[in-house]
Design a protein that fits this description.
The chain has 240 residues and is mainly alpha-helical. Helix content is 60%, strand content 4%.
Length: 240
């Protein structure tokens, strides 16, 4: 339990939370705009799931995430946070370790949720989306939301504990990468190489081949377990 209120942690969490919401809105607007239309991975001819119909669920899931995080960090504070200073040099190693462990667990749990029963009652919600834009990061069944958030908390528990700054930095990277996988854009500037890659890989999972690319961030697990589907140029364009 929290012995005393950690205000920098609360400020960091609120900052990452609102960054995520604003980043999602901006990415979604860019993907839908005429200006970036040429960079859309898939241009839907007919999208039965317009963004406006996604708003109530998205709003609920964003609030639900805030509740889950509050519960985890009040009950499991000592597992993930310590007050000791941490060497700046270890931060990239810690972040990479969290992302690798998270993505490995995500791969398998995600694959299990593609079994017929779980797909029929839970994961189908997310797969109603065939042409992802950033808002679809939150177009989830609450059970999907719960296990995704739990896997991150488990990963930081395994690698941690972290001091407050490194924990917020790790959370920020995880949120940024998660918000990028549904970006739906393949932008020409090399600055966007990573986000383009994440969006291309996950786009395949929503569109061309739902039985592939179960990992979120790295191709390794899909390559290792035979479910990797490379996103090729000819996979972009207009589809029904
Ligand atoms: Zn899936
Ligand atoms: Zn998705």
């Amino acid at each position: 339990m929290v012995a005393q209120i950690n205000f920098p942690l609360i400020a960091g969490l609120v900052g990452v939370y609102f960054f995520s919401v604003i980043f999602t809105v901006l990415q979604t607007r860019a993907a839908k705009s005429e200006r970036y239309k040429q960079y859309r991975l898939y241009t839907p001819v007919n999208d039965p799931l317009a963004n406006t119909s996604k708003v109530p669920r998205t709003f609920f899931i964003i609030l639900f995430i805030a509740c889950i995080w509050t519960a985890y960090l009040t009950q499991g504070y000592d597992w993930v946070i310590h007050d000791e200073p941490s060497a700046f040099a270890v931060l990239p190693v810690q972040i990479l370790a969290v992302l690798l462990i998270y993505d490995f667990m995500f791969y398998w749990v995600h694959r299990v949720f593609h079994l017929p029963l779980l797909m029929r009652y839970v994961h189908y919600v997310h797969h109603k989306v065939r042409f992802p834009t950033a808002i679809d990061d939150y177009y989830l069944h609450p059970i999907d939301t719960l296990w995704v958030t739990t896997l991150f908390f488990l990963s930081v528990t395994i690698v941690g504990p972290f001091n407050t700054t490194t924990f917020i930095a790790t959370l920020f990277v995880w949120v940024f990468m998660n918000n990028s996988i549904h970006g739906g854009l393949n932008l020409p500037n090399p600055v966007f190489r990573l986000t383009n890659y994440l969006a291309r890989m996950h786009n395949v999972h929503h569109g061309k081949n739902m039985s592939s690319n179960f990992g979120s961030f790295f191709p390794f697990w899909d390559m290792l377990f035979g479910t990797h589907h490379r996103s090729k140029k000819e996979h972009y364009g207009q589809i029904n």
